[in-house]
Design a protein that fits this description.
The protein is of the alpha+beta class. It is built from 22 helices and eleven strands. The strands form three sheets. Strands 1, 2, 3, 4 and 6 form a five-stranded antiparallel sheet that branches. Helix 1 packs antiparallel against helix 2, helix 2 packs antiparallel against helix 3 and helix 21 runs antiparallel to helix 22.
């Protein structure tokens, strides 16, 4: 039943509509009296929705799992409670029978599988939403990993994308999210990301890229890929004997120094994240193996991000601006990196970034009042959500990769000084990419930059300095919140009514097209009531407009 196209579309769209109506009704009910208790109820509602999404994704599989993983990277548009539920959404699903996998394999190779491989484990060693992996022995005696795409997964994901287009249209047309984010751009980003994962030849190219990239490194490597045996739905690569990098027993048994391994890991991923080119976008412990000799092996290059040459230049400007406390340059770099949409309050964002930098560089601040720190970041997060700010997909993936990497790093060495380890690599990167403008020479500019960095990172910031303009900030925030409340009161009734009409109309049409009488009569009834609700909302909206005048 879960593979039936109409069923999947109805389940996905109806779940989205249910969530939107719950949110609209909750906001309408509490719009005039939002208290701390209301906020707790709001968080509870979002948590219930996130849990329902997670359960539905694990039941339907397909795109919903990948969409959940993708949305967990979008802190710019998703509530924190949703991200907490989705960020560890497990990609492991029950494996398909060997008979079905064998059909895919032999169709891709156009010959019996036992004429190509000598031996295969009939049970997969790993199973995920798009493919499953088998351990095989090739005719030359090499042990390899064979990844086979799940039968029918491409058709299932294409169906889910149809449902997602309906949901995106509803969000774009009838919710404020359509004004805060470029939803169709997000759709295209997801389409491209999943499209790459469905094409194993893309993963093959990425694997070869990283294999070549790390040829000159002594302590990091990637598997060898058998390109002649690989197709769009079949991937063959070297079998890697190793353990997860967080397997501390394995490290101890092989006398591998955890701290030294952590430093190497920092070097590997800073090299990826700071330089133009591709970076591993899913560096969770299962994709980072350690061999007995301590070599780090990167595997699974299905999810890859890429930083262009032009973006690398703007990233350099962003880092320079933060280090030199030139926040006009920081805002300019963010604009060029496509973080800021039209209408963003640049002065407010400069103050926010300054406060954030001061907080991070102030050891006294972080140690003195943990509650105050949490409140500060809650305010910053609120501003980010209210401002027209959007993370471009490559930087959303970048942020998720960095977050995953840091979590892995601190399992290895909880006491590592990440700033101290990163500083030499960061300075080297700035030196190589620095383009002086008003200085006599690159060397002079670089020395001046180093002198600017040292006091910034060495001198603790005080709370008063980090929050040196609290009065103006609070006044602006209060004015902004009042203005938003008035606008919400003017638009919410009409918007909610239109949502009812459009959704019930969609399901009425579906009922007619697919001859579902129950769906037709129930949605038609809802459509009728929605129309009267719309008339009532128009009348209430006019009264509110007159009152405002």
């Amino acid at each position: 039943m879960k593979n039936f196209s109409l069923y999947r579309i109805v389940v996905i769209v109806s779940m989205a509509v249910k969530f939107l109506l719950q949110i609209a009704l909750f906001r309408r009910k509490h719009r005039r009296n939002w208290t701390n208790q209301t906020n707790e109820q709001w968080e509870s509602l979002l948590k219930q929705q996130a849990i329902e999404y997670r359960q539905t994704a694990l039941r339907l599989e397909g795109l919903l799992i990948k969409l959940g993983q993708f949305l967990s990277t979008r802190a710019d548009i998703m509530p924190r409670v949703f991200i907490e539920q989705l960020e560890d959404l497990n990609d492991r699903v029950p494996s398909v029978p060997w008979k079905s996998a064998k059909e895919v394999l032999e169709k891709e190779w156009n010959k019996p599988y036992d004429t190509v491989i000598q031996k295969i484990s009939k049970e997969p060693v790993a199973s995920a939403s798009i493919g499953q992996v088998y351990k095989v022995i090739l005719p030359n005696g090499d042990t390899a990993a064979l990844k086979i795409q799940r039968p029918g997964i491409e058709r299932i994901i294409n169906t889910d994308f149809k449902a997602l287009r309906i949901v995106m249209w509803i969000l774009k047309t009838f919710t404020p999210i359509g004004e805060q984010a470029d939803l169709w751009a997000l759709y295209r980003e997801l389409d491209i990301t999943i499209g790459q994962e469905l094409d194993f030849l893309k993963e093959l190219q990425n694997g070869i890229y990283f294999k070549n990239r790390y040829q000159s490194f002594d302590y990091v490597d990637a598997p060898f890929y058998y390109d002649k045996l690989s197709t769009r739905k079949v991937l063959v690569m070297e079998w890697v004997e190793g353990a997860r990098i967080t397997n501390l027993d394995h490290l101890q048994a092989n006398d591998i120094d955890r701290r030294e391994l952590a430093v190497r890991l920092v070097e590997v991923f800073l090299e990826q994240l700071l330089r133009e080119g591709k970076f591993h976008a899913d560096p969770h412990p299962g994709n980072i193996l350690v061999k007995r000799d301590g070599t780090i092996m990167l595997i699974d290059f299905g999810m890859i991000g890429e930083i262009s040459r032009s973006d690398a230049i703007f990233i350099r400007q962003l880092v320079e601006g933060i280090i030199l406390e030139d926040y006009d340059q920081v805002i300019h770099a963010l604009e060029n990196l496509r973080f800021l949409l039209p209408g963003a309050n640049r002065e407010l964002l400069k103050k926010m970034i300054r406060t954030l930098v001061n907080t991070y560089t102030s050891r006294d601040f972080s140690l003195s009042d943990e509650y105050l720190v949490k409140q500060l970041f809650a305010d910053i997060e609120k501003i980010v959500r209210e401002q027209p700010i959007q993370l471009p997909s490559e930087f959303a993936i970048f942020g998720k990769a960095a977050s995953t990497f840091v979590g892995t790093l601190y399992i290895l060495d909880p006491d590592i000084d990440l700033l101290q380890v990163s500083k030499p690599l960061l300075f080297q990167w700035l030196k190589e990419n620095y383009e002086p403008k008003d200085f006599l020479s690159p060397r002079t500019a670089f020395n001046w930059l180093i002198q600017s960095v040292r006091p910034l990172s060495a001198v603790p910031r005080r709370v008063q300095q980090a929050l040196d303009e609290p009065r103006k900030y609070r006044e602006w925030k209060q004015h902004h919140e009042n203005l938003q409340l008035e606008q919400a009161l003017l638009l919410s009734k009409k918007r909610d009514a239109l949502v009812f009409i459009v959704i019930s109309f969609i399901f009425t049409v579906l009922g007619i097209l697919f001859h579902h009488e129950w769906l037709l009569y129930s949605s038609g009834t809802v459509l009728l009531f929605s129309f009267f609700y719309y008339l009532f909302s128009l009348r209430a909206n006019r009264k509110l407009l007159k009152k405002r005048r």
